[in-house]
Amino acid sequence: MPRGARTGRPPRSCGVPCWVASFLAVLLAVAGLLAYLTRAEGPASTQHSSTPTSTPQAASPEATEGEREAVASPPRTSDPIVFAKAATKVLWTYDSRSFSRAEHVAGLRRWMTGEKKYADWESVSDQIPNPVLWSRMHDNRQHASATVGEGHFPQAFKTALAQDPGAITEAYVYAVTVTGNQSIAWKGAGSGAESRSTTLAVQCRPDKACALVGVLPSVAP
Q1: What does the DSSP assignment read for the chain?
Q2: What is the number of domains present in the chain?
Q3: Residue at 29 is within a domain
Q4: Mean pLDDT in each 10-residue stretch from start to end of the chain (221 residues)?
């Protein structure tokens, strides 16, 4: 399996809801993160204030009783950066040797926000190889691991929040850019590694643990 094979479908073009264009437009323009979340209606977010109060719980790649999980459980934290780094790790990690695509998909769904108005599952499922490719990966015993380094709020996101601090209180959705490395291996001692970056949209309401909203197709610096 070629080391570059990570997803089974081509990038989406600007469709409905075209949250990418509107997200970046707002992010780089005036205030407000959530133009891209207005596919239903209304704005929704911008950035996080100072230091969030949370008790981060590391997402373990294995179940507590020693049984491995297709996808690690989400951490219970109110810190969007902590959550985004954990989410990035599971998005870059898979094991087609031991788990079916359906199990992998079900595991990732646990990370999504339950608020359908804001959840963009399609942007997350775009990261998953399609069934045919997953089957080929299984035949080649392909699996990937990830190490996550730095996470931060994009500068344009911080600028937007400074211009309109109250905008975040609509949906509490934050943009977080994460960098790290993905290592891929397959049968026959094949392997490869590369540096990667991604920008995620994460929802962290004050009374709830953080959850994943979506994945931007472009990295916001």
Answers
A1: --TT---SSPPPPS-SS-HHHHHHHHHHSSS-SGGGGTTSSS-------SS------PPPSB-TTS-B-SSPPPP--S-HHHHHHHHHHHHT-EETTTS-HHHHHHHHHTTB-S-TTT--HHHHHTTSPPHHHHHHHHHTT-EEEEEEEEEE--HHHHHHHHH-GGGGGTT-EEEEEEEEEEEEEETTTEEEEEEEEEEEEEE--TTS--EEEEE-SS---
A2: 1
A3: no
A4: 43 42 42 39 34 36 56 96 98 96 97 94 94 96 96 91 86 95 89 93 95 91 90
